[in-house]
Amino acid sequence: MNNIILFSVKSTLRPGKAKVFYTSSSQFDAVAVVGLPKKGTGINEAEGLDEAKEGVREAAAAGCRCLQADGIKNISVETFEDAEAAAEGSHLGVWKFQEFKTKKEDASIPEIVNYDKKSEKEWKIGCIKADAQNVARRLMDMPSNKMTPLIFANVAEKLLRPCGLEVKCYDKTWITSKKMESFLSVAKGSVEPPVFLEMKYKRGKEKDQPIVLVGKGVTFDSGGISIKPSANMDEMRADMGGAACVLATLLSVAQLELPINVTGLIPLCENMPSSTANRPGDIVTAMNGKTIQIDNTDAEGRLILADALCYAASMKPRFTLDIATLTGAMRVALGGAATGVFTNSPSLWKELESAGVYSGDRVWRFPLWKYYTKQVTDFPAVDVNNIGKGKGGGSCTAAAFLKEFSPPGDWLHLDIASVMGPNDESPYLHKGMTGRPTRTLTQFLIQLSRQA
């Protein structure tokens, strides 16, 4: 007997449930039978989901997990008429962060292959998307002493250079030469040196301006002098979730060989309390010359992103997208259901929303009204205040702050604090940091590459 396993599409089980049957067949050791949605299920506009695709992901994950738990090492997965979704659910479902456990809770990750070779192209796309998200999950769940700015930069080089990307790791001297005082002000409270990552993928036309992705890379956020409560502060190891998603998205774009130009920018540092840290009331000057009053040192993500966005402007981007675990207010607003999006581009919003429906990792649009701009700019002594005035709307004022530094043209800001983890309720993700919304970003770029 061998260890090749087949999922049957014929099942009376409830959707997303699985049951394993052991056989005496010479072809299979066991068969995992899984429940699928009813025929004809598709896009539910009220839910903003393609429920057929989600059902396939959930079923594939459930079956693979059952077989994995029984020690099966090789699994063949039926496509359920959607090879891409089946591959995503399978690869996401069996992955779990256990890097520092001497005794693993689960069996090792099995080898998963496509049973239906006719849909190999779609299967490969699903594998690339899921594996990229798993890369982001690992980066986000790594403890901060094992994922410092320098270590993150080394990981980026190791993963991206073999895929043909140009990766540059700039040090404090370079950052200082660019007059990124806002970024440096956050980094100066830690003994860990800051790093500014610039990663370039070029497979589009030479004349095409790059899409620029900017990711927040705070590898640990204590809050600084405005220190966070001790409860759950360990979760701030994942405050570089935006950076992780940018790196993972670039990896998937390269593996998919999309015909576009994409540049990733990641400012990396820690936000720590010390005698050299930012103090409430300090004033710094960003790369574009605007002055910023720092009334709360725990609103540091926008400070490092401000300079990264200013630097992005020098590239004359096709459009700019920044992504960050920026505000706890976003988690309050959306729970774990979706990523919050702020943008000045209705057309890009529609593309991103469509990508979220397709991937099952949804996005939701918030306002960029002048009301919020006034909250952060109406101050007598400085150009911008890092928390603004008034109560409520914290995610909106944070976006308004970033808008003051965004490059001319189309811009999107994604606040992923809501989907960071670690208690995510996605049925095909184990508890832990999520790597969301890597697959949505990848699908977004796939759609745009078809328009190039």
Automatic annotation (TrEMBL):
Q: Does the keyword Isomerase apply?
A: no
* Catalytic reaction annotation: Release of an N-terminal amino acid, Xaa-|-Yaa-, in which Xaa is preferably Leu, but may be other amino acids including Pro although not Arg or Lys, and Yaa may be Pro. Amino acid amides and methyl esters are also readily hydrolyzed, but rates on arylamides are exceedingly low; S-benzyl-L-cysteinylglycine + H2O = S-benzyl-L-cysteine + glycine; L-cysteinylglycine + H2O = L-cysteine + glycine; Release of N-terminal proline from a peptide
Q: State the top-level EC class.
A: hydrolase
Q: What is its EC number?
A: 3.4.11.1, 3.4.11.5, 3.4.13.23
Looking at the record, the residues that make up the Cytosol aminopeptidase domain are: 296-303
Sample GO molecular function, one term: metalloaminopeptidase activity
Q: Can you quote a single GO CC term?
A: cytoplasm
Tell me which PANTHER family the record gives.
Answer: CYTOSOL AMINOPEPTIDASE, LEUCINE AMINOPEPTIDASE-RELATED
Please identify the protein, giving its name as recorded: Cytosol aminopeptidase
Organism of derivation:
Parthenolecanium corni
